[in-house]
Amino acid sequence: MQVYVAGKGIITAIGNNVAETLQSFRKSKSGISHITILPTVHAGTLPAGEVKFTNEQLAELAQLPASVSRTGLFSLIAAREAINDANIPHLNKWRVGFISANTVGGMDHTENIFKAFHEDHTKADLSDVEQHDSGAVTGIVAEKLGIKDFVTTISTACSSSANSIMYGARLIKNNLADVIIAGGTDALCRFTLNGFNSLMILDDRPCTPYDENRKGLNLGEGAGYVVLVSEKVAETLPKKPSAKLVGYANANDAFHQTASSPEGKGNFLAMTGALAMSGLPHEAIDYINLHGTGTLNNDVSESIAIQRVFGMNVPKMSSTKAFTGHTLGACAGVEAVFSIIAMEEGMIFPNLRWQTQMKEVPFKPVTELMTGVEVNHVMSNSFGFGGNCSSLIFSKIK
Amino acid sequence: MEELMKTLKQQIVEQLNLQHIKPEDIGDDQPLFVEGLGLDSIDALELIVLLQQKYGVKLANPADGPKIFHSVRTFAEYISQHRTK
Amino acid sequence: MLYINGTVCISPQNTSDNSVFLPEVKPYTGNKIYCVDVDYTKFFDPGSIRRMGRLIKFGTAAGMLTLKDAGVETPGAISTGTGYGLMDVSQKFLHNVIDSNETSVSPTSFIQSTHNTVSSNIALMSGCHAHNNTFAHRGFSFESSLLDAFLLAKEGYDNILVGAYDEVSDHSYRSMKRLGLLREEPCTNTELFTAEQKGTIAGEAAAFFLLSKEKNENTYGAFAGCKTFSAPANADELKSITTAFLSANNLSANELDVVVSGHCGDSRLDALNEALIDSLFTQQTILVYKQLCGEYMTSSAFAAWLAARIMKLQSIPETLIKVNRQRQPKNILLYNSHRGNHALLLFKHV
């Protein structure tokens, strides 16, 4: 059973939708900037991939009340774009699901009310209390989209939305669902910003993934979703799907709570597992959208694992986190959309700001935008805390 | 210095929640990491927080940690040279 | 159908030792109840235990004990669910961030705050490099991990560890209070159902299951089916969803022996459970369980542990029985709901 990608939707620091995102890629325009929306003492010192809309502006875009958490607003904006893009005739006659991912839920609201709430629990707004948990955010969006059949939330740190896409594909393959909107969302908040800062893995400059002199990551925010459909649904579409999800794997590094093993065992297992399912030889992969956070640890483990999988003939690769920052629970959804754009547009995105070769590996990422390239198979990596490692492989439908 | 080392041992046990270790059991020159007290990279980050909270010293580069936190003595020496409170 | 070849639960009752089955009920007064700790130094070395929040300890321990119960060293995959996640360490971290005005923040709580901490801890301790998932979808968290396991079994995996866990944190307790879900008058858990009342008690537990395609001498019974759905419009709709679920599993209501109902002690909410029982299950033994573990998002996992133990022992502890129809517990249905998330789970004696 094949799983087709019928639509995609996205919002990040480089665009509110697919069209704007594509424009930013064409101009190699990064979304990393000083923080201006999130109220934080780090605003002047720690750059991030912040979406330059206030919650009120996002609420208007999403057609939701501004009392909904930023995580939920991003989610609805991107999921709705994906559904509109898929344009599935008689959507409600199919078994439809919404499998979303996030790591912080409504934390952006919780941290604003937290102090007062813990002094006097009657003080907080009901809706702020109600939407704290990860599932609440998914629930609000599913209800707005009118999706009832399958709704759930996955939260496995930075691999979350790769796992939601995988779960969606498996529901279709096992004939439990026909259409699944899958991906993830996360908003910048002080919780994660200070968390990563306390681990001393945030770069105080715009990040430089895969560079020998990299200092760490920049956080980002946003949402990305794909609409996965069965073969039966694909046949009814007015617009032919441009891609298939042909391989995926979820593996665990089982090495350390936050750090990757030096040899990248989990990364290796995720990539080889996804390749095995796709039936593709590794030479067939035209582009790897790297996890590439820009931390010392991730980029070394990932690149060593890539070398183990691909040998000396590594595919073209880049980390788009230099554009968007690390969007955490959203990143695999966001990068799934990027992977499909790469195939549709024949484009490979540059790993912005790269200057110096890493000493651990002999290869380097793509540093200038490439256009007019035949991109048929893309691997997208997402690795997280707790050793959760997932890889997805998309193939172009010609 | 003796007094500072004694205080520091208590603060280390407290900050790292070393329930199984008494402050006085930590040797002045005993390595704190790996083969010594068995601390790891997360503990190093916690010690950076301790340094900032109690002594007003901000350590910008975590790579400096291993040298400073080698033992209670090296830690105390660093503090006495750099403390702002 | 997947066989339950191991299960352990850590809860506010003495449930972690499978050589006994609820010989007595621990009474608690107040509107929140906490797990009975096991000796965690048996599981974790002193170097790592010092950092762990409560849920990480009792969640990980329940998972590791389940592997031990099943005699499995490394599971084939791990899939878990948690409603609130690691809320206690999250709130500790948030206090630190806010109190220090973001200037002096300690990383330990943050590291443990991601929802996948327990499942990845179990992977780390059992050396499991395979599929590892964590669902965080309120009252569907456990059911989602169960469906994940059913899919995994079809995809060639075996010996899958599933489970669910939540804790009473200061934040979740205050939230339940703010949402008007808790008893306002002092209440003893053993008297949760004695009078018509509003509100329930906050609770917690961790329950795990080792699910296999083959049965063995340790098999408790089998998970036969699971269905999740959003709030039915009325009792009739609930009845027809339940009937359809049973017939999809080739069963009629009469063939069920025991129904475990997620009554929470709030008579306004329990009315729907009562209506279902009155309309379909007049010949079945009816059990209730939230007097033991309290109300929390993944309490259906606690009830599943009860069902597994009942199937294996073929006896029902007195404390669970609401209505006794003297039936041998062979086919067991669980119906539970948590604020709009409704679930049916089916168990079969083997």
Short description:
In chain A, 35% of the residues lie in helices and 18% in strands. Chain A is of the alpha/beta class. Chain A has two domains: 4-234, Thiolase/Chalcone synthase (Peroxisomal Thiolase, Chain A, domain 1); 243-396, Thiolase/Chalcone synthase (Peroxisomal Thiolase, Chain A, domain 1, 3-Layer(aba) Sandwich), CATH 3.40.47.10.
| Estimated share of beta-strand residues of chain A | 15-25%
Largest interface, chains and sizes: A-C, 61 and 60 residues
Radius of gyration of chain B: 12 Å
Shape of chain B: globular
Helical stretch count of chain A?
13
The main β sheet of chain B shows up as: none
When the domains of chain B are counted, the total is: 1
Class computed from helices, strands and strand pairing of chain B: mainly alpha
Task: Give an overview of the whole structure.
The complex is a heterotrimer of chains A (398), B (85) and C (350). Chain A has 13 helices and twelve strands. Chain A has helices at residues 18-26, 55-62, 70-86, 107-119, 126-130, 134-145, 160-173, 190-198, 231-234, 265-278, 296-310, 321-324, 331-345, and strands at 4-11, 96-101, 150-154, 179-186, 222-229, 243-252, 287-289, 316-318, 347-348, 370-371, 377-383, 388-396. A ten-stranded mixed sheet of chain A has the order 3-2-4-5-1-6-12-11-7-8, sandwiched between helices. Chain A has a two-stranded antiparallel sheet with strand order 9-10. In chain A, strand 11 (377-383) and strand 12 form a beta hairpin. In chain A, helix 10 (265-278) packs across helix 11. Chain A starts with a strand and ends with a strand. Chain B has helices at residues 2-15, 41-55, 65-68, 72-82. In chain B, helix 1 crosses helix 4. The longest helix of chain B has 15 residues, at 41-55. The radius of gyration of chain B is 12 Å and the shape is globular. The model of chain B has no long low-confidence stretch (mean pLDDT 91). With 350 residues, chain C is of the alpha/beta class. Helix content of chain C is 34%, strand content 20%. Chain C has helices spanning 46-49, 54-70, 87-99, 107-111, 117-126, 141-154, 170-178, 235-248, 267-280, 290-293, 299-313, and strands at 2-10, 77-81, 132-135, 160-166, 205-212, 221-230, 258-261, 285-288, 321-323, 331-338, 341-348. An eleven-stranded mixed sheet of chain C has the order 3-2-4-5-1-6-11-10-7-8-9, sandwiched between helices. The longest helix of chain C has 17 residues, at 54-70. Chain C is globular, with a radius of gyration of 19 Å. The mean pLDDT of chain C is 96. At the A-C interface, helix 4, helix 5, helix 6, strand 3 and helix 7 of A face helix 3, helix 4, helix 5, strand 3 and helix 6 of C.
